[in-house]
Amino acid sequence: MTLIDHLPVLLVAGPIVASLLTLVAGWHDRRLCYPITLAAVLGEFAAAIVIFRQVMDGGTVRYYVGGWAPPMGIELVIDTFGGFILATIMLLALMTALYAFRSVKKEVPAEKTVSFYVIFQILLAGLIGMTITGDVFNLYVFLEISSIAAYTLISATRKPHSYVASYNYLVLGSIAAGFILLGIGNLYVATGTLNMAELAVMLPASYDLATVHAAFLFLIIGFSIKAAFFPLHLWLPDAYTESPSAVTVLIATVMAKVSVYALFRFLFSVFTMAYITESYPVTGVVLLIATIAIVAGAILAIAQDDLKRLLAYSSVSQIGYIMFAIGVANRIALEGGLLHILGHAVMKGCLFMVAGLIIYRTGTAQLSELGGIAREMPLTCAAFALAGASMIGIPPTIGFMSKYYLVLGAFEAGLWPYAAVLLVGSLLAAAYIWRFIEIAYFGGHHDEHHRTGGREGPASMLAPTIGLSLLCLLLGIFVAAPLETIGLAVAQLLGGT
Amino acid sequence: MIEAFSELFFARYNYWMAIILMLIGLYALIAKQNLVKKIIGLNIFQTAIFLFYISVASVEGGTAPIYLPDGASAVYVNPLPHVLILTAIVVGVSITAVALSLVVRIYEEYGVIDEDELKEAVRG
To answer: For position B98, which CATH number holds?
Structure first.
C-alpha cells in the first residue's frame, strides 16, 4: 500500500489534522493560520483531482477504513458521481480559501481568526466525509460535524443579527438531522445493515414494509430541510445574509451542494429508481413542489432590497431546478440536474463573492444605496453580469446548458406544462438579476457622500471572483467535458450500483 | 375495541413512548416562545430517537454483549445500535452547547430570550 492507496481516508483526516495544526500554530502566532489553511485546502484539492482521475480511469475506488471490510467496518466509496461532486466542492473550497483572507480580516474580529480557520477546515472535513462515505450512519456523523461547524461560522462576525440567524438554523438543522437519524434507524431495522451498497441489495426484498416507507419519508424530509428545498427553506435567507462573506460563499455553494448530493445518494443509490417511481411514487409530488419552489423563490428574490438576501432567495429557486430533475427522473433531466449542481455552485459562488466585494468596499449591500456602483467597481460588476447571465440561462453559459437539458428531459417525459414553468423561472431570474444590473450601471447620481473607497476590491478577492465568472462561460462552451463525466455518473445512478 | 387498542399499545409500548416523547419534543421546539425551552424540546426530541434505537437493539432475556456467562451460545442484545447512539449522544451534547452559547449571546445583545420580543428587538 502506497500513499496513493490511502488517499480517500487522507481526504477526511487531512483537514482535521490541519485544523489542529492551525489551532496550535494560532497560539504561537495568529498570522500562521491562513498559510496553513490555504496549504491544506490546496493539498486536498490536489488529492481530490488525483482521486477523480483514478475514478475516471479505473472505476469506483473503495477503501476500508482501518482495513476492516464491511459489514464490520466503514467503507469509503468514490464512484463517478462522488468524484464529480468532490472535484466540484474542492474547486469552490479553494476559491473560497483564496477569497477569505482579506474578507475575513475585515469582517471577523482579529482575536477570532484562529478559531475561524480551525472551524473552516472542520466544516470542509465534514463535507468531504459526507461526499465519500459509503456508510449511512457515517454520513449522519459527518453531516452533524459540518452542521455544527456551519452554525458557529455563521455567527463569526459577532453581529447581533447573526446570532439569531445561527440559532434559527440550528433549531431547523437539528430537526432535520433528527429525522435523518430516525430514517437511518428504520433502514437498519428493516435490513440489519448500514452499508449503502448492501442496503441497495437488501432493500428490494422489503420495499412494501411500512418501516421502509417511514425511513424514506424521514430521510427525504430531513435532507430537504438541509438542502433548503421550498417550503423548508426558512432558515436559509437569514443564514446566508448574516454570515461573513466568505462563509456565505462556502455554505451557499459547497454545503448546499453536498446536501443535495446526499439526497441524490439516498434516492438513487440506497433506494433505487424503481422504488421512487413504482413502489412508493414520490416523483410527481417532488416535481410539483419543485416547480412551486422555482417560481416562489424567484418572486421572493425580486421583492428583496438586500443583494445578499436577493441571492439567497435565488438559491431557493435554483435548488428547485435541481429537485426538478429528481421529479422528472429520466436520464436527460438527471444529466441536466447534475450539470446544474456544478453550474449553480460556480455561478452562485461568483455572485456571492461580488456581494462580498461590494460589502468590503461600501459597507452595505442595500440595493438602494448602490446606484452607479459599476462606475467605481467595473470589473466586479462585469463578473456579476456574466454570472448573472448564466443564472438567467443565456447561451453559451453553463446555466443555459443545464436548463436546456432539464427542458429536454421534461419534453421527453411529456411534461410540457412543467417545461414552460422552467422558462418562466428563467424570466423571473432575469427580473431579479436585472434589478442589480440596472441599479449598478444606470442608477444613482447621489453617490459621493455614501462611499469612501470607490475602487475595486483587493486582488486576492477579485481574482477568484473573475475566475469563477469566466468559468461560467468556459464550462458552457466546453460543456462536453463535464457532460461526459455526468453521463457516466447518471448511468451508474440509474444502474443501481 | 379497547382490548385491541391496549394490545397494540402494550405489546410495543417502548416504541409508543418514543413516538410520544418525540412529539412532545417537537411541540416544545415549535410552540414554546422561550429560546431555552426550545433547546429543552430539542433535547427531548433527540432522547426519543435514542430510546427508539435502544428499543430496536433489545432482545428478550438478552444479556449485555460483553457479559456472557453461558459462553458463546448466550443470548445477548444487539450492541451496534448502542454504539451508534453513543455517537449520537455526543453530537446532541455538542449541539446543546452551541445552542446555549448562542442563547447567551442573544441575551447579551438584546436582553430578551422570548421569541416574539426578540423579533421586535431585531426589527427595531
So the answer is: 1.10.287.3510
